[in-house]
Amino acid sequence: MRKFDAEILVFNGTVITMDTANAVIKKGYVAVNGSQIEAVGTLAEIDSIKGKKRIDAKGGIIMPGLVNVHTHAAMTLLRGLADDLPLMTWLNEHIFPAESKMDDHQVYQGALLACAEMIMSGTTCFCDMYLFTDAVARAASYAGMRAVVGEVLFDFPSPNYGPIERGFEYTQMLIEKWQAHELITIAVEPHSPYLCAPELLQQASNLAQKNELPLIIHLSETRDEVSNLQAKFSATPVQHLANLNVLAPNVIACHCVVLSAEDIRLLDNHHVKVAHNPESNMKLASGIAPIPTLLGNGICVGIGTDGCASNNNLDMLSEIDTAAKLHKVNTLDPTVMDAQTVLKMATIDGARCLGLDHIIGSLEPGKRADIIILDTHKPHLTPMYNPISHIVYAARGSDVSTSIINGQLVMEDRKIGTFDWKEVMQAVARIAATLAPEN
Amino acid sequence: MRKFDAEILVFNGTVITMDTANAVIKKGYVAVNGSQIEAVGTLAEIDSIKGKKRIDAKGGIIMPGLVNVHTHAAMTLLRGLADDLPLMTWLNEHIFPAESKMDDHQVYQGALLACAEMIMSGTTCFCDMYLFTDAVARAASYAGMRAVVGEVLFDFPSPNYGPIERGFEYTQMLIEKWQAHELITIAVEPHSPYLCAPELLQQASNLAQKNELPLIIHLSETRDEVSNLQAKFSATPVQHLANLNVLAPNVIACHCVVLSAEDIRLLDNHHVKVAHNPESNMKLASGIAPIPTLLGNGICVGIGTDGCASNNNLDMLSEIDTAAKLHKVNTLDPTVMDAQTVLKMATIDGARCLGLDHIIGSLEPGKRADIIILDTHKPHLTPMYNPISHIVYAARGSDVSTSIINGQLVMEDRKIGTFDWKEVMQAVARIAATLAPEN
Asked: Architecture of B2-64+368-416 per CATH?
């Protein structure tokens, strides 16, 4: 038995590794050095490890941090501003007017609040699309969160960069500024086929390919989108992107609610990744994405919350519960989207969507230490026959006690160590007063 | 301004009254004396009240306790025992064998654990069906929870009472034992049209009518149930009950997933109450109950979690979020099941289902003091444009800080005062070891 020192030793919990064998270690530990996982094993081996910082999981669950593959983090600013409205009323009369008032400072505070919420509910990595993206990257970096972020690009003038040429310049600035950062990955993010001209989509695709970056896009979210694209380009949104040579393994297609068999074949052939956002799709009445079919075709699917204006939270534990249940009732088959499959989507498959599965998504030696602990000493997590069932069907965001990201202890016993979230809450409350419709 | 003393004064929060005007008091208070609400008003009036016990809601939400209209509380014992299986495999190979081993003591501990979970997630009243119901009533009473409970009746021998005649004797015993209790209401509870012969259903109906008690029954939960009843009685389950003269205003029909237009007309004509259990119906792949249609017909619908084996929690805040979203996507209309409607279902309409709306379900002088406080000083509840949106779409069970039931402070700052839930968790863990399939 190799003896070694660990900067952080998490022990005395059931370790859900999410490795390729789905190994679960009943009384296990994870040892961290620097930003990396040094070792994962059973309690029997633990005497050989000297842990500088020892974290007792107290019989709880030790697992990879959750990966939220689709967010608009700063939309925390608009949480509950407007609900239960027809999509176009909601967007045109509430969301867009509020967003037109935003600036870099507001987005920074909104994103930082989102980081607090995400850390406190077990997310360690998120993939974001929004305005003033440098602020989102700064917020994630300050909070100590891993993030894939990009500036949203579209045909009309942006409250951030103005005309689209400036949008590409801004994206180029992001790429250069953040390229060496441990936690931040920049993506190229054209909003959608319906808000982006073919030239924009192709330019975005070229930029992403050239820099080997993810390309993130909303795709086939609503029936209206599909019929409008059909009318304009005689192609579904997916076919339209295929025709423009945009579909590729680096593409993360968000939503994919309305898909034809041909669309699914195209996504599969081009190894496109899919971000599934069940709660947002439900709340906006967009529809139910054919996820079991996508999985059956071997397409890689991650899970995201979407923004707080259409959810209205960033709680991945709630999202995976909903995902598991929604597809059962939609297919009238209780065996689809079993707990293991859904947990995979929220961890290693989410990481794969983002092109980060070589460094995160599972607890394995050599990977970055993105680790959370669930406190299972709660009435609603008792008894425990099966920890994976509990994670998916019974646990809540508030059960996450501790979070380590890239080897840094960002939360311990529900206390965030990297920043003062109460100050951020106050700042956001002040901003919200200026965004409310009466202003 | 009337001056008076209050035993408990809850103040400094947004009071969601759920009265007939849906009044919301921005900076309000609720004053409690004995088991009753003495007054509800604005902070401006508060100097006239001397509060013996003063509870500062700290700007949070003060609202009626949630009413869970369909539970099998003691099924906490089976939480996560088996998931993601075909219904008959799940029931016959996992749930029924485990239940056959249960006794009064086990049900008591399971129900008490459920009470801990329910109190800690904002439920103050639940409506239960299970075996060994006296144990459930004792557990609720000991925990200080309001409950409607009844012994499940069916054609085959029960692990509790044996043959059905003894089931009616047991129910009669419950009625007599608990009739004067402040918190407990006994109901007559034939399991379902498919497990109860016509004579059983009629005898149960007569007993309920004679004693003016609720009659609680599973009804039209699955397509198989409907086709089997059709084959046997040439009637849908609803028609079958109508033919037997069982349908009446005291009937709480649980699930009602598969309904014909004629079924809906019958439920409406007989003023039957409906318990909607969206998460269980999703997880078991039963289907989606036509709730917007029922509401459109003026039928009273409450919300329940069902048992922990098919959910797997008793969190009403999660359940109402799911209810609001599920029907939007099912009808492809984002305006159905708006937050106010859903919150009504979980409070005053739930109380109406149970025949208790004259005493609970809203915060009004003269009603019993069943009150909860939500702590909104959390990242995921910031900012707050609309408290009702937050309750339905963003809050979690763990945001409930304080609970008062029948004037008794059962939880303050998340500490349950009525019993030691950690001891109960240990007892349940021991019981679970005996119920696991390998035993």
From this structure: Roll (2.30)
Which positions in chain A touch B223 (Cβ < 8 Å)?
A: 332
Interface mutation target, options A332, A382, A421, chain B, most CBs of B under 10 Å: A382
Q: What is the DSSP string of B205-216?
A: HHHHHHHT--EE
What is the Cα–Cα distance from A146 to B69, expressed in whole angstroms? 42
Helix (H, G, I), strand (E, B) or coil at B49: strand
Running along chain B, 439 residues long, what does each successive block of 10 average in pLDDT?
91 98 97 97 90 96 98 97 92 91 96 98 98 98 98 96 97 97 98 98 98 98 97 98 98 98 98 98 98 98 97 97 98 98 98 98 98 98 97 98 98 98 96 80
Pairing of strands B371-374, B400-405: antiparallel
ipTM: 0.97
Question: Does A298 contact chain B (CB < 8 Å)?
Answer: no
The gap from C-alpha A188 to its chain's centroid, in whole angstroms, comes to 16
Count of A-B CB contacts under 8 Å: 218
Looking at CATH, the fold of the domain delimited by B66-353 is given as TIM Barrel (3.20.20)
Supply B113's token pair: 């654990």
For A328-369, the pLDDT digits (tens) are 999 999 999 999 999 999 999 999 999 999 999 999 999 999
Q: What residue of B is the nearest CA neighbor of A224?
A: B332
Please indicate if any CB of chain B lies within 8 Å of the CB of A20. no
A287 reaches B (C-beta below 8 A): yes
Segments making up each domain of chain B, as ranges: 2-64+368-416, 66-353
> Are the CB atoms for A86 and A286 separated by under 8 Å?
no
